[in-house]
Amino acid sequence: MLNKIYDWVDERLDITPIWRDIADHEVPEHVNPAHHFSAFVYCFGGLTFFVTVIQILSGMFLTMYYVPDVENAWKSVYYLQNEVAFGEIVRGMHHWGASLVIVMMFLHTLRVFFTGSYKKPRELNWIVGVLIFCVMLGLGFTGYLLPWDMKALFATKVGIEIAASVPFIGELIKILLAGDATIIGAQTLTRFFAIHVFFLPAALFALLAAHFIMIRRQGISGPL
Amino acid sequence: MHRGKGMKFVGDSRIKANNRMVNMPKDYSEYPGKTEAFWPDFLLKEWMVGAVFLIGYLLLTVAHPSPLEGPADPTNASYIPLPDWYFLFLYQLLKYTYASGPYNVIGAIIVPGIAIGALLLVPFLDKGPERRPSKRPLPTAFMLLALASMIYLTWESVVNHDWEAAKAQGEITDEHLGLVPEVELDKEAEGYLIYSGEQGKSCIACHGTEMEGGGAAPRLLGNELTAEEVAEVIKNGRGAMPSGQFAGTDEELQVLAEFIASLKPEE
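Predict the joint structure of the above. Result:
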């Protein structure tokens, strides 16, 4: 049955080459921890992606309860944390995942750096990787405000002050982020929500796609 | 036109094997070794690594529920702010003399800007063919230096932060949860004067001047007891409350009990 469906689609769309591009390739010995235990350093990139997927899924569930509005944001998080079945687990995974994704991505960056894997012809992929790093930090910064508790508000105040100290365009960045020249309040929360849930994930998906397509094009860098 | 057929690629990549750049590192296929099919053999192993990782991740989640402080209150001027831990090194950097105040631009923009810029441009700054860290001492040294300073700054930030004070701030109170009943406390009432007077010294010590309670002592505002029950509790104690604490006369006790029983929100 499945084969018949596959054949039916394949006859029309020729999907076998796509499958071959995604999954049908050899993995070299030097990145395989089953052959060399030290090759576990090559797992960091995959684990970063794994946590990213968990972040996307848990974040989707969080938005089912979260209300991005100054009156209700904190209340909705409190309700989610204390009343909703498994709400504490889902929020906990999103909270700890945010830290883990930074840790794993940092380790992945160090692996790529110290194995010199960014060298020709992989310069572009390195640049895309650094951009992903920046997007992740942005996700961490904007997500920190969303529970709208004391530490969220005051950390964001400091962050926005730092952004405002950029010469020439600092004030513009501040108004773009906070929604107002002086107040950090209702506008800021909805903006951070939009940035955290729509803008940055969109950028992240595009960059991840580019990252993976380039890896499949170029293969993994050879052993040292 | 080539359509991929008959073309030679380097390893499993899409880089053409002919006219290869001399600069390019040798591919693994030029080393003897055991390759493995990605699907399904290698992916299965990756899933096992992922499963072990997930167990640790879930244990962390269950053991440490994610923190939530009281709702944001912009009027609180004494709150000590703290960013998430991975921004601590930047936060610490901004505390040094030549990175703050009039030199703020150095700490907030120039230093992080140089770091991110250098990281972004690494492939163009380090163009040699060598890949081993020991064969390219400058990039290795700079990265180790950056790592060491990040670790040092994070450490300094952690030891200089007043964790005791930070823990005490931002607590979730009954007020935040809408648990404070709307009862007006008439401090001129006879009952309150007894409560706050010499006879009620031990009443006010635990239940507070606003009758808000504290520690093991419950809030008296909005209690659900009748005057008789209140008098009973005052005489004989209940739970953590010891008996015989009231030092006044029976008449005063009666007035006090009726006053406390009257502290109910209007229906």
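Chain A touches chain B through 87 residues (CB under 8 Å).
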